[in-house]
Queue: 3 jobs
Job 1
Amino acid sequence: TSLLESSKENKCVFFLFCIRDNEIQRSPNSPVFNWYQSTLKMPLKHITLANLNEEGVNSLVSDTLCLFPRLTRHLSQVLHHRALGNPFFVWQLLDTLQKE
């Protein structure tokens, strides 16, 4: 929180924090939960990103791989199941697959 508080002076800080809602609710005594709760008091813009359905994940995957959606459907189903539709986690899984 001190970084956030000190950034009030220069107003040039971009911070992205991504977590699933159920992870916050599941661990109310964790340091991440306490930190997240403290950010709610700061003048920040909170953006909620909804999970993608299978079709949305398939669009993301087919666009990323420059392939027709019919060719990426099976991979997209697996990624959707693993990432629960969270676009950030879909990107992370795609990145991991690409590196392997």
Note: The first helix runs from residue 2 to 6.
Job 2
Amino acid sequence: VVYTFELVVEEDEEAGLCVEKREGPIEFMKDPNETGMSFVATGQEARKEGCSCIYGNPCQDKYICNNWEKRFDVAKSNGWKGY
């Protein structure tokens, strides 16, 4: 079963919130109603769930985070502005 959705995102580039740019549709790899769903833009590999602190975004889940106690420090050292 293939589910097709359209995602429209308005990013505030002046605030530094533009994370990445993608072209093409997003294809869901499984039922979007299941938790832990992964997605992929056409022509790219599926991105697995993992620690987001290393990309400048503090993790929200301690079971995925590489350093839960210092997640804010790790995120700041990777570009998070703290707000």
Note: The radius of gyration is 15 Å.
Job 3
Amino acid sequence: MQAWGKDQKVGLSLLQLMADPAGDLTKALDMEMTHPGPQGKGLFGRCKRHAIYAVNGEIKAIQIAEKEDDPAGDEFPEATLADTMLEVIEKVKSA
């Protein structure tokens, strides 16, 4: 995760990249991708593309990039990109 953060130039930012090698968080958040497409390619237990806004361990908002024809959210990741998350965070803070 550190190498990915370095590559994305987010090393010491407010963004925290986290790995979930055993899928524990994926399962706890009910984010396991069960669509037959990725599973047909051997991608079992893959996590749905998502972004979480949390404050002091409390989840305030979750965005998921998942569509019927794009279960992995790879083609349409807009819901989880930084600009969208900043908008979501502003809405949460102003509510």
Note: The radius of gyration is 14 Å.
